[in-house]
Amino acid sequence: MDEATGTGLPNRPGAQRMRWKYLDNILTRHGPFTDPDWEPGEAAIEGLARAKLLGAGGLGCEILKNLALSGFQDIHVIDMDTIDVSNLNRQFLFRQADVGKYKAEVAAKFVEKRVKGVKITPYCGKIQDKDEEYYKQFAIIVCGLDSIEARRWINATLVGMVDDQDPDSMKPLIDGGTEGFKGQARVIFPTMTSCIECQLDMHAPRAAVPLCTLATIPRQPQHCIEWAHIIAWEEERKDITLDNDDPEHITWLYQKALTRAQEFNIPGVTYSMTQGVVKNIIPAIASTNAIVAASCCNEAFKLATSTNPFLGFPGTDNYMMYTGDESIYTYTFQHMKKSDCPVCGDDNIARPLQVDSDFTLQEFLDSLAERPEAQLKKPSIRSQEKSLYYQFPPDLREQTRPNLSKKLYELVQNGEEVVITDPAFPLTFKYKLVFK
Ligand SMILES: [Zn+2]
């Protein structure tokens, strides 16, 4: 019991007390889900305030606001972007006058001003700039990153940090992501539960439309745009390098696509759709971001305070998917750890990969960028016996370049294991090539 108020609530100054009233209610009494050993009161509130959290990425505004209003007081934020005028419709911590400034800095200042007592430390740069020593200082890491590459990097880094002798080296990763009306929130206990690499196939790149569809019978407005983008430009403006940010170029593609769409009686081609298809833009919807960020921050709160069961406790559900594009549907399930996961799996197990043995090495390496289970853009590859192709250093690249035009069956045996590395990831990928 707090003596000054007699309510069991901490003695905060008047306005402060009102702001945190409901939060304090949760933290100062036992609930149906709290452990009998859990101690409500000042210690729980203090623990929450002291827990050092890291937030990062495209859901940043929502996550920062939610964490600050959930009682966290020591928050760090990483974001490499500067504010663009197109962000202002949904990234509500930014104003017209902030255009051009770093998001992390502006967001930190805004939230510090609005929520008294919270300290937000911004870092303007990539999450990849920081090392294990840096990530070690946090209790929880909340990521709303918009790039799968950055997700895979932080995942691999956190898994790599785990030291069996040191329980404090295991940092829970809360990951949220959205794509239009769809989204997901998940919690990962590195090495203990299924990681992002185990679940990589959940992030399949969008299926490419076969070239023959584009060339012969387009069915959707997007097909006409892709046709203008891939085929018409190549035929008519080969000497000009397409610049996605040049309005003249986009207008040219738009008009080509529109004419083609009219020939096939397909409605719906617009300038902004052309821009979207060419730049591969997935629309960010403010409300979906809000839903997913809220779910991530609730998990952070429960993890930090032990007031309620949280998503991702080993052996329980760890993945919540939200689908809003066809009415509303949510589903929470347990994604299982995979023993052949290159990040958290058994070091000795290679992930099987079905390949066409008639592919050249070049074709195979190109296909790795598209394959949902790999998504590697700059792969180097070696078999058990030899280096097949290396991107770096230059002399090894020259030496291995002739292999690129050789067929896979000339280079490896059916069932042979290969090791693939990619400069974007701090790890090696082991695959077992199985001929189709
Ligand atoms: Zn894994």
Bound molecules: zinc ion
Give helix % range. 25-40%
Number of strands: 13
Strand content: 15-25%
CATH topology of the largest domain: Rossmann fold
Order of helices and strands: HHHEHEHEHEHEEHHHHHEEEHEEHHEE
Family: Belongs to the ubiquitin-activating E1 family. UBA3 subfamily.
Function: Catalytic subunit of the dimeric E1 enzyme, which activates NEDD8.
Enzyme class: ligase
InterPro entries: E2-binding, ThiF/MoeB/HesA, ThiF_NAD_FAD-bd, Ub_act_enz_dom_a_sf, Uba3_N, Ubiquitin-activating_enz
Task: Give an overview in words.
Catalytic subunit of the dimeric E1 enzyme, which activates NEDD8. Its EC number is 6.2.1.64. It is an enzyme of class 6 (ligase). The protein has 436 residues and is α/β, with parallel strands linked by helices. The protein has three domains: 51-202 and 285-333, 3-Layer(aba) Sandwich (Rossmann fold); 211-279, Ubiquitin activating enzymes (Uba3). Chain: B, domain 2 (Arc Repressor Mutant, subunit A), CATH 1.10.10; 351-435, Ubiquitin-like 2 activating enzyme e1b. Chain:  B, domain 3 (Structural Genomics Hypothetical 15.5 Kd Protein In mrcA-pckA Intergenic Region, Chain A, Roll). It has 15 helices and 13 strands. The protein has helices at 14-19, 21-27, 42-50, 60-69, 103-114, 132-135, 148-161, 211-215, 221-236, 247-263, 271-279, 286-305, 361-370, 394-400, 408-411, and strands at 52-57, 74-79, 119-124, 140-144, 173-179, 182-188, 319-323, 329-333, 351-355, 380-383, 387-389, 417-421, 428-435. The strands form two sheets. Strands 3-2-1-4-5-6-7-8 form an eight-stranded mixed sheet, sandwiched between helices. Strand 2, helix 5 (103-114) and strand 3 (119-124) form a beta-alpha-beta unit. Helix 4 (60-69) runs parallel beside helix 12, helix 9 (221-236) crosses helix 10 and helix 10 (247-263) crosses helix 11. The chain is globular and about 70 Å long. It starts with 13 loop residues before the first helix and ends with a strand. The model is unreliable at 1-8 (pLDDT under 50). Zinc ion (ZN) binds next to loops. Residues 195, 197-198, 337-338, 341, 343-345 line the site of zinc ion (ZN).
